[in-house]
């Protein structure tokens, strides 16, 4: 029977650590290193039932993909019920997920009125969601469009800004500079507004063998495993000990998509809004606004309170925006449509760039998924209500209104080497995979660095 056991949970100062022991058939999905998360405030007083949440939030979706049961000594009852709700959403979303049961020796519910009691002996966990209102709030924050819009919407709450290292910025030393850049930018943003910050670092993508998970499941999802399946539950779960220690009642995460988009994605209202634990409820924020409407919210904030605001959306670098990737160009065009000058808010941009965007989209230079198709469709909807300001802009808008966005998505594919590597990794013995994959990954990283340096 497939199973994953969480053992030896410890909290020493600001560091959380535990062991993950998978059954033999699941060993290839784990590196063998302890699961570790570091916070910037002591978590020694946090109950074990809350300390286990970060690892459960990241391990359980993988367990559900394999029909595996998960075993822990103790878990917060609210979070156990949340896992059942999230599991139901993910199983409805993805046919390849099989489900599984969480077993705990003890479930802890600090609210006796809920009807839950501490119980001894293994038991399956189920239950109903209940609200837990409060006033202190926090917001997952990177300085991008979605999180900045959420800050603007909730700025009267003075939310703690939470930044996480472990997904788009890994814990590898090569990403140290990116993390320093993100911390510096978020700290400056917070200091200017009298806000607190919280920085979280986790080895989630190395304790779980993320490349091997991709090799097995990338074929079932539009993006990667973490973006398509795990990141809503996973990132929010990493915050649990921090939120408990700080007394955070409401934790917001900015929506990526919006109403009317039914994409298979790891962060949606029917995932994030279910996540909860003792004293904390999570909220999928600004789902009622399209990305262009979120830029409108930011534009109003810029005009009234923050004329020098700079956004950071680039995934290539964290010390500013490269200005030459799909996301940078897409954001720059969106800023123009909301009445802002991109160059004043972090994006090098000129009218001549419109030809560059069209060429890259038509030539399949950028790997686009359904996610990006909806983003460009949103821009196109705004273009219909906009008067171009230059010949270059007019020509681009005319092309965008006429082009079949589905064709742009279908013509973009991951490199053949990536697909072959994943197919091979699904079948090679663990010992061979553990030797060859790091070498191939290092080679691909060097090639990408050289390309970006040109």
Q: Which strand order spans the largest sheet, edge to edge or round the barrel? A: 6-5-4-1-2-3-9-8-7-10-12-11
Shape: globular
Q: Which class best fits the helix and strand makeup?
A: alpha/beta
Give the averaged pLDDT, no decimals: 88
Q: Span between N and C termini?
A: 51 Å
CATH architecture of the largest domain: 3-Layer(aba) Sandwich
Low-confidence stretches: 112-134, 419-423, 440-454
CATH C-level of the largest domain: Alpha Beta
Query: What order do the SSEs take from the amino end to the carboxyl end, as H and E?
Result: EEEHHEHEEEHEHEHHHHEHEEHHHHHHHH
List keywords for this structure.
twelve-stranded mixed β-sheet; 18 helices; 454 residues; Rossmann fold; alpha/beta; 3 domains
